[in-house]
Amino acid sequence: MKNKKLLICIIILVIIIIVGITGFIMYKNYNDSQIALLSKEAEKISSMDIMSEEIDKKIKTKGNYAVVEKTIKDYISEVYTVYNGITELCNNSKLSSILSAENIQADDTEFTSSKEIIANFRNELNDYADKCNILLDENNIISKIEEKNLNNKYVQLYKNMFLTENTAKELETAKNDLTSAVDTLNKTLDGLDKTLNFLKDNSEYWTISDGKIQFNNVKVLGEYYEIISAIQ
Q1: Residue 10: is it exposed, middle or buried by C-beta count within 10 angstroms (0-12/13-18/19+)?
Q2: Buried b / exposed e across 72-98, counting CB within 10 Å, b at 16+?
Q3: In this structure, what DSSP letter does residue 57 have?
Q4: Of 21, 38, 138, 196, which cross-links 46 as Cys (Cβ 3.0–4.6 Å)?
């Protein structure tokens, strides 16, 4: 079960967002004290390890600048939540032991428990994938500030932070990579389901012995290995 590709896509998402934030530092030279405070918070975010540190959600600015700051921090917090959720899903998954002799022996003849694990993982995976696609959508990033009904000055301030010249292309690449990774994992889940169904339909041709699945039919054994070898 290859979970690493999906995690790499999430890391790419994080990097894109953080790199966008660094572009906002150019506002340091402005005299406006509120922009200076906002810039300082942006710099803190750009230097933090969002994969292991929670963002400081305390709002340091005032007025409409506070709205911009809160919108920024809320968005980054969403990224943090999704990243940690999908990391936990992949790292704590029981999928790697689904086809172990121990698990197969412990489950019932319909492999009810194993199939439930696969179904739950699939549902959570696709739910996180949907959330990531929303986070990666440029229109969604912009809508976060536009829905606050602020003066265009503040909307532009927010846009300048997130949407650099290359951001759109990077977001599209990340979305494509994410889709590819999720498709790969779903094919793996399909393969696990197919293997369990094969074992159920051919239960008279195998037993568990010495901690291994032992087949008493060469043809069935060959079909079994053909199925599991296709699992990515």
Answers
A1: buried
A2: bbebbeebbebbeebbebbeebebeeb
A3: -
A4: 21
Q: Which class for 210: exposed (0-12), middle (13-18), buried (19 or more C-beta within 10 A)?
A: exposed
Are the CB atoms for 171 and 138 separated by under 8 Å? yes
Backbone angles phi, psi at 215, to 5 degrees: -100, 145
What span, in angstroms and rounded, lies between the C-alpha atoms of 175 and 135? 10
Amino acid 161: pLDDT: 72
Residues in the chain: 232
Tokens, residue 65: 């600048």
Ramachandran quadrant class, 21 (left: phi over 0; alpha: psi -120 to 50; beta: rest):
alpha
Distance CA 3, CA 16 (A): 21
211: left (phi over 0), alpha (psi -120 to 50) or beta: left
Number of Cβ atoms within 10 Å of the Cβ of 123: 10
pLDDT in tens, 137-180: 888 888 999 999 999 988 988 887 766 666 566 667 767 777 77
DSSP annotation of 2? -
> Can you give the pTM of this predicted structure?
0.74
Sorting pLDDT into bands at 50, 70 and 90, what band is 14?
low
Rounded distance between C-alpha atoms, residue 92 and residue 199, angstroms: 25
